[in-house]
Amino acid sequence: MAKYEADNFIEEFIVEDLENGKHGGRIHTRFPPEPNGYLHIGHAKAIVINFEIGKKFGGSTNLRMDDTNPSTEETHFVNSIANDIKWLGYEWEGDILYASDYFGDLYQFALKLIDKGLAYVDDSTAEEIAEQKGDIDRPGTNSPFRDRTPAENRDLFERMKAGEFADGSKVLRAKIDMAHPNLLLRDPVLYRIKKETHHRTGDEWCIYPLYDFAHGQSDSLEKITHSLCSLEFRHHRDLYNWLIEALEIFPSRQIEFARMNVDYLITSKRRLKKLVEEGVVSGWDDPRMGTLAGMRRKGYPAQAIRNFCIRTGVTKRDNQQEFDFLEHCVREVLNDTADRYMAVLDPVKLVISNYPETGELLPLDNNPGDETSGSREVPFSRELWVEREDYRKEPQNRKYFRMAPEKDVRLKGAYILHIDGHEEDADGNVTQINATYYPDSRSGSDTSGVKAKGTLHWVDAATAIDIEVRDYAKLFTDATPMDHEDKDFMDFINPDSLKVISAKGEPALTNAKPGDTFQFLRKGYYTADEDSTEDKMVFNLTCGLKSSWKG
Questions:
Q1: Using alpha carbons only, how large is the chain's radius of gyration in Å?
Q2: End-to-end distance of the chain based on CA atoms, in angstroms?
Q3: What mean pLDDT is reported for the chain?
Q4: How far apart are CA 114 and CA 173, in angstroms?
Q5: Mind giving me the DSSP string for 114-143?
Q6: pLDDT of 551 above 90
Q7: Which residues form the Glutamyl/glutaminyl-tRNA synthetase class Ib catalytic domain (predicted)?
Q8: What pLDDT score was predicted for residue 2?
Q9: Residue 177: Cβ within 10 Å count
Q10: How far is CA 248 from each of CA 29, 220, 244, 481, rounded to the nearest angstrom?
Q11: SS3 of 259-302
Q12: Is 301 exposed, middle or buried (0-12, 13-18, 19+ CB in 10 A)?
């Protein structure tokens, strides 16, 4: 057997099982999301853990949809989940699986429990069941229906399946211990009546298993060796194991790891859904959302998400990760992969009075750090667009190396200019910057002898394209908006989380496809959005150039 080294406590369990020859040395994990929304950054952590462990130990990983609630689940969500996992770079074993694939098996498991006297049909209301359970300081009380015979329970359960009873009128409960210290084992509900159309099985079923009954038995049916789930399911493990023993089925092993939360991002599908439904964001894939679809649209590379999930480690205690570290991981990848283009976000006209009326094409490297990225030709002419903030009427100190009257400055990949002055409107706003150029100062062949300490980006006015830039900031003003007992997380919505800017871009940006990410020189990383049209390209701010993460 190959010698494996464990990098975290989950892998220690797995190595132990492998060394003991458990399951014949086979490793099989699974990722079982409920298709009732889009995946978020917390799900990414679970995906990376399950798939990377499967890969490391020569095993495989299933993708199984936990589709046991027809009220909230849609095929649309199934497709988005599958797309996100593939985008992250993972392939699951075989076809997508569904808990609904096993409805017949789960029904037979329920009958087996009934026949063994380990489950009963209860007519109590939800409120009555909650009261019967007691609390941590008080043992529960038995349901008045707990002592029905197996024959009575089988008859009633079969009639539940046949649709004879109304929603909520009866449930199937496990018969365990109403004084158990783990409240989840105080006769938990296993099945409920729900006469709603299921996204896959239609109206075939009107009773549906609850998560605690469906997920463990689905693991066993698939012979999952290690059921890896987040820490909130720790107390569910006792029921998980009780059902395995009671049903005498394949003994999958549940291991819990800590959830990963990230500053300023919501990792609750219910709350993400609220943001969508109340119109706070444009949809599940809004770039301000903590969903994988939103981060993909914003321009975060899949590699960066994987790196972030791996580098934050696997822990036993819930943890809060810095948003700045997430963007640090994004910036690391984009610094190597993103081509450098020019765009002017707050344009003002620059006129070079002594430049010929006929323009020229200047060569620029696409990515100076990547020799394989090639180069492109950028139009240059007498009239250019430059950033308004790069000009000052009166510089405040000697270390100002951008544009000001009587200053020399270089344009990226082009010439050194001498700034002669400017024109302004009645309100004192600069409407045009006037300059002359040194003809022998072209980048790569400069023989002018003129020195310029500042280098600025620019766009040719004659060929520039109009672009829309969506400047995204954090959606919340508080890093942990769900941690305030006295306030709703919606109270922390940032009203300035999106600013739409009309800008100018070099003509080559016309060829950008949705998802293409560029470094706009001196401004940040920007990604072409799917809203782009032939008439107007749209770019989303992915992240800034400088990292604020302290390490």
A1: 31
A2: 39
A3: 96
A4: 9
A5: HHTTSEEEE---HHHHHHHT-BTTB-----
A6: no
A7: 27-335
A8: 64
A9: 14
A10: 20, 10, 6, 45
A11: CEEECCCCCCHHHHHHHHHCCCCCCCCCCCCCEHHHHHHHCCCH
A12: buried
Please name each of the domains of the chain with its CATH number: 9-257 (3.40.50.620), 262-339+468-543 (2.40.240.10), 343-457 (2.40.240.10)
Looking at residue 223, its pLDDT comes to 98
CB 433 within 8 A of CB 443: no
Of the residues 11, 34, 222, 327, only one is catalytic, namely 34
Pairing of strands 455-456, 97-98: unpaired
Cβ pair 382, 351 in contact under 8 A:
yes
Mean pLDDT of all residues in 212-238: 95
Burial profile 462-474: b = 16 or more Cβ within 10 angstroms, e = fewer = eebbebbbbbbeb
What's the token pair of residue 318? 């819930």
Catalytic residue among 55, 194, 259, 388: 259
Please say if 34 is a catalytic residue. yes
Instruction: Provide CB contacts within 8 A for 16, sequence distance 6+.
Output: none
Q: Tokens 């400069």 belong to which residue?
A: 446
3-state secondary structure of 194: coil
Give the predicted TM-score (pTM) of the model: 0.93
Short-list 397, 360, 367, 350, CA closest to 381: 360
382 is catalytic: no
pLDDT(83) > 60:
yes
Q: In this predicted model, what pLDDT tens digit does every residue of 437-475 receive, in sequence order?
A: 999 999 999 999 999 999 999 999 999 999 999 999 999
* 148, 269, 306, 402: the active-site residue: 269
Q: Taking the mean position of all CA atoms in its chain, how far away is CA 125?
A: 39
Select from 228, 262, 286, 274 the least CA-distant residue to 57. 228
pLDDT in tens, 324-366: 999 999 999 999 999 999 999 999 999 999 999 999 999 999 9
